[in-house]
Every structure is written in structure tokens, then in C-alpha cells.
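Q: I'm writing up a methods section and want to include an example of the input and output format. Could you take the sequence below and give the corresponding predicted C-alpha cells, formatted cleanly so I can copy it straight into the document?
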Amino acid sequence: MFQLGSAVPDATLFDDEGNVVATHFAGPRWKSNSGSIVLGAAVQPTVTVDTNAIPWVRLRAVTTEGPGIFADTTFIQRVNTVGGKAPSADGAFVGQVARVPYTADYFFYRKTNKLTPSEHPVEASVSTGKLFSVITIPYKRNELSYFLR
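A: Here is the clean output for your methods example:
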């Protein structure tokens, strides 16, 4: 039997009206419809709130590129996770992919206080504070892919 490798995200981010606002893929990376990209790296420790779901995690932004909603992101939080855990059974062959659905809320933080909600129509909700602007994107229909190795 073959064991499953690390999870690779393959997610489409939707707003509350069902519009696509970004994609989430290997890296982990997020790419917005407005063209910005952010690459994250997990900050340990992660937090297991539900043993049947992937953990809550904080990620630091390693790089950002392009203008748009993810420009100048400094860190990201994944919370309120449901599902996404790797299957418990071994796979049948190398290269097999197990796609596992999950939902979560992702929060993207920027070190600025100059943003206003009107600067980001449709894409996500934005709230501002003295130290950080927070972009909230709920993931509603997403999958993690686990590859057999």
C-alpha cells in the first residue's frame, strides 16, 4: 500500500454572492482576480480545534506581487475549518489523488491604515484598524489534494 503525501490546496474562493474572487494553490499561494499573488509559510504551532478538520494556522507572507487585494499582505490566518483531513486508508497506487473537501475562513492582514472598504468592491470585506487592514474571504467550496508517493 502507498501512503498519502502532504496536502496541496486546490481551491476557488467565492464571495457571499457566489462570485469567484481568487484561487488558492500549491506553495501555499493565493492569486486574486485583481492580479495580486501572496506566498505564505506556516508559523508554528498550528492549532487543532476539531480533530476531524485541518488545523487552524497562521502564515507569514513570504512574498507578494502585483497590485490588488493581496498586495502588501503581511500575514494570513486560516480559522473555522471543517473537513480537509487526509483519508485514513492507504491508497492503491503511486500517483493516486484523494480530493478532500473543506471550508475555512481566511483573513489576510496588511500593515497599513489607509484602506477603506470602498477600495475593494465585491472581492472581499475589508475592515481597518490602527495597525492592520483585514481582508476576510470565506472559503465555501474547496478541496485539498493528497498525492500518493
